UniProtKB/TrEMBL annotation:
Main EC class the enzyme belongs to: transferase
GO terms for cellular component: cytosol
Assembly notes: Homodimer.
Protein name per its UniProtKB record: Pyrimidine-nucleoside phosphorylase
Native source organism of the sequence: Alkalibaculum bacchi
Stated role: Catalyzes phosphorolysis of the pyrimidine nucleosides uridine, thymidine and 2'-deoxyuridine with the formation of the corresponding pyrimidine base and ribose-1-phosphate.
Family: Belongs to the thymidine/pyrimidine-nucleoside phosphorylase family.
Amino acid sequence: MRMYDIILKKREGGELSTEEINYFVKEYTKGTIPDYQASALLMAIFLKKMSRRETVDLTKAMMNSGDVLDLSQIEGVVVDKHSTGGVGDKTTLILAPLIASCGIPMAKMAGRGLGHTGGTIDKLESIEGFNTQMSEEDFIQQVNKIGVAISGQTGDLAPADKKIYALRDVTATVDNLSLIASSVMSKKLASGAQGILLDVKMGNGAFMKSEEDAVELGKIMIDIGTNMSKDVVAIISDMEQPLGRTVGNAIEVKEAIEVLQGGGPEDLVELCLVLGSELLLLAGLNVTREEARNLIKEKIKSREAFRKFVELVKAQGGKEEQVLHPETLPKGKYEIKFISDNTQYIAHIEAEKVGSCALLLGAGRENKESKIDLGVGIYLNKKVGEQVNKGEAIATIYANDEERGKQTIEKLKTCYQYSDTPIEERKLIYGIYD
Ligand code: URA
């Protein structure tokens, strides 16, 4: 088989065979296919697209390129949740202990971020001592003991995706439905859960800008999972503005703690109730959607969910004190406010741009070697639909470098649009598909 022929076939709009896809994934992972040929094929796929069959084959090939976790030693149906990525998305920090407090095992492999802020693992490292690198054995043991564990990848999961994603990132071939679906699903399938909940983000802060594309992506991923005998549900949720009021790392942990203690911003709480209910249904709990929602609310109200988070932090070596007193979590030393010149309504907040403001502050990684500043971040005092009075804060920045903080405020000002009259509330959930 020659890579040249495979590229040519796709360039001409042909359908690649299973063998051709397997050859590409295997040889590229091994390093025998050079980046320039892999890039050419990715661009041909981007332009000519892939059929459902090709997409499923690509997913399987990437999933099988490394370890596939066996979670059969965990008692109960293991469920997992994945978000296609959004600004201010801290739902995993909330849902893992919350679902575990309902008696459903949460064995969560999470990632580091290469983007506006860190990923779940980076965020958890805001808590002193929290160990995010567990062995597979310890990971499984902890889930059986306390019902929840959150770790960075234990084995070498889907190494083909890591290599291909890095190449897509620099060759303008990320936002293709088949390539995104196979990338996400290869990792999820290799992580070993039986039930997979996908939070497909839609809007200016997401890969999928339109509802139509988001639904299509959700359906492709459901198709892939079903083909591999998994139970998959996709929720389409809004990412036109950041989720919740915080964007950063420690500042997001703080907000997650607020939700677990019964507070927190309305949109974040609502999304957690919706995602949480679906996770309970996926786990096979014999309840209606409404009963699932009520059970989750009850676990928050009784503080069982928060206690489970404390238990999780302790089990993984984190400092309990910081969870009990979140004001002791890292926080940028310069607090700079963005003050409103007028009394007005917030009409729009550009999520993507707020994300790049967080990156400018140092909350995310520009490349693999970048070091994250866990204490910096943005607090959105006002969100879309809310009124702000003249002289009141629209947002607050926490920086460790005053100059960068000032630059960020200037950039943040360009993320907002205003209205003199009240504006309609945005929808949060656009659909649930299975
Ligand atoms: N998230 C992934 O894991 N892969 C993609 O291709 C896009 C988002």
